[in-house]
Amino acid sequence: MENGSSESRNKARLAIMELANMISVPMSLNAAVRLGLADAIWNDGDNSPLSATEILPRLHLTYQNGTIGGDPENLQRILRMLTSYGVFSEHLTNAGRKYSITDVGKTLVTDSDGLSYAAYVLQHHQEALMRAWPLVHTAVVEPETEPYVKANGEAAYAQYGKCEEMNGLMQKAMSGVSVPFMKAILDGYDGFKYVEHLVDVGGSAGDCLRMIIKQFPNVRQGINFDLPEVVAKAPKIPGVTHMGGDMFQSVPSGDAIFMKWVLTTWTDEECKQIMKNCYKALPVGGKLVACEPVLPKETDDSHRTRALLEGDIFVMTIYRTKGKHRTEEEFKELGLSAGFSTFRPFYIDYFYTILEFQK
């Protein structure tokens, strides 16, 4: 610490203080979702700047005697924190600080379908998941067992299957993330144009298939393939058949196979097995369309790189210590090892990349 200029040492101390207190950011975001701040401020599109005192009545926090509850000072502290990360916009007025919703904050606003990224935030901060985070270092010391398993006694997906509340939140979270992403890729990717029979592996509630079929009416049959306990709760969708099974055993046949955020949570060998099963289920010329986070070759401090690397650590901690986000070259090698002859990436979304593997 003695080397370097006074300014560089100051910056270093400031940087490590920020990193050490970084937990305040996701916890404040979690608090904002639990309080319903985004919907309260957005107010069906009004989005007029409001003070913490003006926001409180919209949160419907009442005491037993019927009076409005909540602490405006502490609420403002949360609003200021999240303003520094672009979730809210701060307006300094003669009456004090007021807040409105930014484009980032709007992702937490409930849309006409009852969806937003709010469920994704809540899903990531459930008590069982939070217990795993102090054990991240054990992924280095004992990589055979996930920190989540060490903290909870069983794997995350096993708990999802047993706990209706966790499974329901997972499905809602995936829907909230999938719908805006699918809107983006369907506007920029036409790879389903000539597909008649489409299989979605790990399709959860079937939202992706529903949107693809709506955009591409040439898709006459969609199969939503996931674990039996997952598809058992999936809603009826015209043109879609929900099918339970195990992708490590086999995958339903189709002209094309779609998957989103599936390969990330598995090891290289497991990914090869999944992709080999997809290869077997496709006709010659058929293709696997995988949407996955793709790491850049070099590490930088951009928002995109940080978001991808943060997601990678989440996978390592919660799902699989050797499951991971991969680079484009790593995905290409997996596809070739599974038998696919060609590989093409499409960078349309900032988080997900469309990876096309053709048989």
Automatic annotation (TrEMBL):
Sorted alphabetically, the keyword list is: Methyltransferase, S-adenosyl-L-methionine, Transferase
O-methyltransferase C-terminal domain sequence ranges: 138-341
Q: Which GO molecular function terms does the record list?
A: O-methyltransferase activity; protein dimerization activity
Spell out the Gene3D superfamilies in the cross-references. Vaccinia Virus protein VP39, Winged helix-like DNA-binding domain superfamily/Winged helix DNA-binding domain
* GO BP: any one term: methylation
UniProt feature coiled coil, ranges: none
Please name one Pfam family that this protein belongs to.
Answer: Methyltransf_2
Q: Which residue ranges does the record assign to the O-methyltransferase dimerisation domain?
A: 17-111
What is the protein's name according to its record? (rape) hypothetical protein
